[in-house]
Amino acid sequence: MKIMVAIKRVVDYAVKIRVKPDKTGVETQNVKMSMNPFCEIALEEALRIKESGFASEVVAVSMGPSQCVDTLRTGLAMGADRGIHVDSTATLFPLSVAKLLKALVEVEKPTLLILGKQAIDDDCNQTGQMIAGLLNWPQGTFASKVIVDKEKQVATVDREIDDGIETLSLDLPAVITTDLRLNQPRYATLPNIMKAKSKPIKKYTPQDLKVEIKSDLEIIQVTEPPKRKAGVMVSSVDELINKLKNEANVI
C-alpha cells in the first residue's frame, strides 16, 4: 500500500503578514517560509500508518517554484521515503493543484491520498474535495481520527461536524483531509535531516503531466483588515454596565 501526501510551502505561521504596496498580494521576499501546518499533520498521519505496518511507502508531493524542494526535504527528514516536485512558477489555484494531483495519482497509483484540510495562506479548503471529485474516490474531510484496515481495504475516519463526531467508512483508494486534532507532528532529528539529503526527489512540470495551468480566479486587490480600536479599562462592573447601555460603539 502506497500513501501520497501533498505538502505546501507557505509563509511561516509565526510571521507577521505584510501587504505589498501595490496591493497585489502579500510580501514573500526575504520572509521565512515553512510547511503548511495542516500538511505537517497529513504527513505525520501517513508516517504513523506506515509505522503501523499498513503501508510500505510514503511519497511527499509539493508544487511550485524551486524553493519547494526545501519543503520536500523537510518532509523527507520527517520520514517520507521519496519526494515529487512539480516545478511551476505560475500561481496554482486549487483546481490546478487538483488536476496535477490527479495526473500524479495516475502515475504513482497510491491507495491513499492525504492532504491538509486547507493551507494557511489562502484558507481555500477546496483541493481535497476537488481531487476526490476528479478521481471519483470516496473522501473523508476534516479527519480527527483515521483507522486503516488493510485486509478489508477500508479506512474509517472520524470527522468533527457541528453536531459532534461523524464516522465514515471509506473503501480504498480514498482521499482524506486532516484537521488540527488528528495528531501532533514530529520534529525531524539531525540524523534524519542528513539522511533526507540522499533521498530521491523526482521533478515534473505541468507539461510533463499534460495539465494546462490556467487561472479560474482573478485577484482584484489585497488589503489589510481594519485595525481594531484600543480597548477601554473600567474600574468596576457598574461602569462596564453603564458603558454597554449608553455607548453603542463601545464594543
From TrEMBL:
The keyword Mitochondrion applies. Pfam families: ETF. It is found in: Mitochondrion matrix. Residues 23-213 form the Electron transfer flavoprotein alpha/beta-subunit N-terminal domain. Heterodimer of an alpha and a beta subunit. It comes from the Eukaryota. The electron transfer flavoprotein serves as a specific electron acceptor for several dehydrogenases, including five acyl-CoA dehydrogenases, glutaryl-CoA and sarcosine dehydrogenase. It transfers the electrons to the main mitochondrial respiratory chain via ETF-ubiquinone oxidoreductase (ETF dehydrogenase). Its main location: mitochondrion. One of its GO terms (biological process) is fatty acid beta-oxidation using acyl-CoA dehydrogenase. GO terms for molecular function: electron transfer activity. PANTHER family: ELECTRON TRANSFER FLAVOPROTEIN BETA-SUBUNIT, ELECTRON TRANSFER FLAVOPROTEIN SUBUNIT BETA. Belongs to the ETF beta-subunit/FixA family. CDD domains: ETF_beta. It comes from Senna tora. Signal peptide: none annotated. One of its GO terms (cellular component) is mitochondrial matrix. Keywords: Electron transport, Mitochondrion, Transport. The keyword Mitochondrion applies. SMART domains: ETF (SM00893). This is Electron transfer flavoprotein subunit beta.
